[in-house]
Design a protein that fits this description.
Helix content: 10-25%
Number of helices: 2
Strand content: 35-45%
CATH superfamily: Ferrous iron transport protein A (FeoA)
Oligomer: single chain
Order of helices and strands: EEHEEEHE
CATH class: Mainly Beta
Radius of gyration: 10 Å
CATH topology: SH3 type barrels
Number of strands: 6
């Protein structure tokens, strides 16, 4: 399921990153790599604030849909 469907506060593991090479590379640079735990901290107007690799990162809905958990 895409990260946008994950419950707030629930820890999930990243299963797959979809999209073009540039998109996958950008997400990897932010810490979104397969096998890494990720937790949705908050949702604001469809955009997400997530915790990954001891950092809080804001993702818009389109980018969050590329991260499958």
């Amino acid at each position: 399921m895409p990260l946008t469907m994950a419950a707030i506060g629930e820890v999930n593991r990243i299963r797959k990153i979809t999209g073009q090479d540039e998109t996958r590379q950008h997400l990897a640079e932010l810490g979104f790599v397969v096998g890494e735990p990720v937790r949705v901290v908050n949702e604001l107007g469809g955009n997400l604030i997530v915790w990954v690799k001891d950092s809080r990162v804001a993702l818009n809905r389109a980018m969050a849909m590329r991260v499958l958990v």
